[in-house]
Design goal:
Length: 340
């Protein structure tokens, strides 16, 4: 048996001229999960930015690549974590959320840690726990087009302050999915930033400008108490139950649930009672669930079947609405909160 390969590559203080000019070449150069460390003006603390937990979400990697090329001088010591490089590089570039046969990396930050993704997650948790950084931000994109928003599983002025570097919307959720933002070992605020749609140019601007502000600001949480945000508390997920099929079309299909084409335009808007969302098959609403924290199904509270269609039963705010049947089936159709 040979020596086990380290799970993470490390690169200390790369000079701007060592960073390949082309983003794809940069990722090829990293070749696998990588932690890049940079010394800061204030070495007494470290700020962490993570990205590419999902291979089809490029805005964070683009922002990191650009900042490194520019030779930016961070305010504090900095760790830049680029996780699923091989997934991102699988052709066509930035097209795979995860690779076939692998678990979703951003569902692996809780036990069991026994497969490759789990070990990668556990190793990152241990590194961050040992470091005790000042803050962690994890940069993502949504699959559908839409505006940027932040997500946190802890709620406080520091989380609001971090979110506000990137966006004015904050989702506060206590759903336990095994995502990076749920980890408590580092003892610092952790927020997820959804920079906007993966194919939207403004998402890249959100990531670049927010990350620059995050890493260059001398006092991260100055004025934190004054931050005002549009809050989405305790959203629930509309999920497809196992064994059912979902599709997305402008007309009904043979699938158990057919999302109506254009449904992602409802992202972050308020929808009225009776809003049509999807065509239902013979099994009706039995194909769907809205799980609460105790494992109950609250589907009937929020939705009802009208003339063969899934409709809202009360005014709701929806977000992360996807028209991608694969994501709808393996993750969720969308998140929802009641209108307060
Ligand atoms: Zn993601």
């Amino acid at each position: 048996m040979g020596q086990a390969e380290p799970l993470w590559n490390t690169w200390e203080a790369p000079a701007p001229n060592e960073i390949p000019e082309n983003l794809e070449e940069f990722l090829c150069h990293l070749s696998g999960p990588t932690v890049i460390s940079l010394p800061g003006a204030d070495p007494s603390t470290t700020r962490v930015a993570v990205t590419l937990l999902h291979g089809n979400e490029p805005s964070g990697a683009k922002a990191i690549h650009r900042l490194l090329r520019e030779g930016f001088q961070p305010a504090t010591n900095t760790l830049l974590v680029l996780a699923c490089i091989a997934t991102a590089l699988t052709e066509p570039l930035f097209s795979h959320r995860l690779l076939p046969g692998c678990r979703d990396m951003n569902r692996c930050f809780k036990p069991p840690f026994d497969d490759y993704q789990g070990q990668l997650a556990k190793s990152l948790i241990d590194t961050l726990a040992g470091l005790q950084p000042e803050a962690i931000v994890d940069l993502h994109n949504t699959s559908g087009d839409g505006p940027a928003f932040a997500v946190t599983s802890q709620f406080g002025v520091e989380h609001m302050s971090l979110a506000n570097l990137f966006t004015s919307r904050l989702v506060y959720t206590d759903l336990s999915l095994g995502s990076l933002m749920e980890i408590t070992e580092p003892g610092c605020p952790v927020v997820t930033i959804e920079c906007g749609g993966a194919r939207q140019a403004e998402s890249d601007d959100v990531a670049y400008q927010g990350l620059q502000e995050y890493l260059l600001r001398p006092h991260l949480f100055k004025n934190a108490a004054a931050v005002q945000l549009d809050l989405y508390r305790h959203p629930m997920r509309l999920e497809l139950k196992e064994g059912f099929q979902i599709d997305c079309s402008s007309q009904p299909t043979d699938a158990d649930v057919t999302l109506q084409r254009g449904v992602q335009n409802l992202n972050f808007g308020e929808v009225e009672t009776g809003q049509q969302l999807a065509w239902l098959g013979e099994q009706g609403m039995a194909a769907l669930q809205v799980k609460d924290g105790e494992g109950g199904n609250r589907l009937d509270e929020f939705f009802e079947q009208r003339e063969g269609m899934l409709c809202t039963r009360q005014p709701l705010k929806l977000f992360m609405v996807t028209e991608n049947p694969h994501i709808a089936a393996t993750d969720c159709l969308f998140y929802l909160v009641g209108v307060e």
